[in-house]
Amino acid sequence: AADAAMYHAKTLGKNNVQFYSADLSRVVHQHLLLEANLNRAIRNREMVLGYQPKVDLRTGRIVGAEALVRWHSPERGVVGPDKFIPIAEQTGLIVPLGDWVIAEACATLRSLAELGVGQFVISVNLSARQLRQRHFVERLAATLREHRIAPNALELEVTESQLMDNPAEALEALAQLKTLGVRLSIDDFGTGYSSLSYLQKFPVDVIKIDRSFLGDVASDGNAVITRAIIALGHNLKLEVIAEGVETREQLAFLQDHECDQMQGYYFSPALPQDRLSSMVCSGVRMAL
Ligand code: C2E
Ligand code: MG
Ligand code: MG
Ligand code: MG
């Protein structure tokens, strides 16, 4: 009986191993498939930027927008960045993709300038891997020149957790970028483990309060954190923007606590470029 039990355990174990390896190879296979498709997608111009308006909380005016990439896949339909950015980061495809995002955002800034819109800021999200690239700063400078964009019309968002992964290295990269005159912001603030001494040293202009804290600003914990982040930002002479604002209550809370800007579905999701342009040109304001 003992032998039988042993035999049973072995076959079970063996089957388990086979099960896991079959599963793993399926994951690897899907990953390779996605990687190949992503490569092709970049070449075939299947990537599209959406622009989510950012609103000044004192005036209700649209003062900028965040560029968010989407993949219009012929096979899968519209694919969100959470599905492919991590793979693009792992495979290095984030470098050509990121270059494209920046160039496209600059082209939109140029077209807004041609339409007579002054003082508009577009932000793009950067991966740590892009920051680490050699000659990133020089290439960025060339792209800005090529599109005749004032550097302070472009903002680069890096998440707090990516910055804090290697804060010394990040500090150096940000300092170099800052010499160009672009704006810098810390995305998803409050979700990483910030070293406050670094926060003070980073040459950033903006902190973005992560939307998880706004989820329920009526709850004591979130209200305290949101207020603390706004105060921290202002004490460090930074602008503070709240992302993921969905309700009138959240908006009122942010106004009461003098948050500078907001973005979120309450006002607008990310829009195609032409819709952003017509909103901005027609001077649409958010009712405060
Ligand atoms: P993120 O930079 O924190 O962008 C905010 C995300 O929240 C966006 O999701 C946006 O559509 C979503 N959002 C905006 N307002 C609301 C709201 O009121 N409620 C809720 N529930 N969500 C809201 P999206 O577009 O799926 O992007 C996800 C993440 O993908 C971004 O987070 C950013 O980290 C990354 N990402 C997007 N585009 C790029 C890119 O070009 N390069 C890199 N490296 N990452 C990107
Ligand atoms: Mg962002
Ligand atoms: Mg964010
Ligand atoms: Mg995020």
TrEMBL record:
Q: Which residue numbers delimit the EAL domain?
A: 31-284
Superkingdom in the source lineage:
Bacteria
Question: Could you identify this protein by its name?
Answer: EAL domain-containing protein
Give the originating organism: [Empedobacter] haloabium
Q: What is the taxonomic lineage of the source species?
A: Bacteria, Pseudomonadati, Pseudomonadota, Betaproteobacteria, Burkholderiales
